[in-house]
Amino acid sequence: MTERIDPTTLPGRPCPLASALHLVGDRWALLSVREVALGNHQFGQIARNTGAPTDRLSARLKDLVAAGVLERRANPDNPRYQGYHLTEAGRDLTGAMRELMAWGDRWAVTASPVRFWHGDHELRTRTVCVTCGDEAHGPEIHPESLVPTWNETGPVEDI
């Protein structure tokens, strides 16, 4: 990515989630990444499929390029036009977006309007610890603050 953030420079708790949301937390940003991941590379396609106002969409796409999530490349069919394409960081973001969509299926919609397939079956994912191979969830997962001025309850007060 071109832009990395020192998490201690953002307001509130230093956290990679806060840093990630600083880069891609806008509604139009994630919907734009969704469209590019689905193969819609042209501005007009992205605008139509997100419903974003074109001025806001233009700003978000510029931000996503600056953050290294998207890149502009010439269209092979018509080199006069450039399209938006996912970078490695953008491709990596699609997993988190699928998890957010699964949460939306469970908690935000009356019926799912989309389904993901893995080969010949519906994709179902789970979080597995790569160190031990066990499924990881709930209270088994706990953070450790690596910023000395913060702990799990918040900023550490000088005594």
Q: How would a crystallographer describe the biggest sheet?
A: 2 strands, antiparallel
Order of strands, widest sheet: 1-2
Radius of gyration based on Cα positions: 19 Å
Overall body shape: globular
Strand content: 5-15%
Structural class: alpha+beta
Helix content range: 25-40%
What are the segments in which pLDDT stays under 50 over at least 5 consecutive residues?
A: none
How many helices?
5
Helix and strand pattern: HHHHEEHEEEE
Calculate the terminal CA-CA distance, rounded to whole Å. 39 Å
Number of strands: 6
Mean pLDDT metric: 91
SSE blueprint:
Elements: H1 16-24, H2 27-37, H3 43-50, H4 54-66, E1 70-74, E2 82-86, H5 88-107, E3 117-118, E4 121-122, E5 150-151, E6 154-155
Antiparallel strand pairs: 1-2, 3-4, 5-6
Helix pairs in contact: 2-3, 2-5
Describe this structure in words.
The protein has 159 residues and is α+β, with helices and mostly antiparallel strands. The chain is 38% helix and 11% strand. The chain contains five helices and six strands; from the N terminus they run H-H-H-H-E-E-H-E-E-E-E. A two-stranded antiparallel sheet has the order 1-2. It has a two-stranded antiparallel sheet with strand order 3-4.
Keyword list:
159 residues, alpha+beta, two-stranded antiparallel sheet, 6 strands, 38% helix, globular
Brief synopsis:
38% of the residues lie in helices and 11% in strands. It has 159 residues and is α+β, with helices and mostly antiparallel strands.
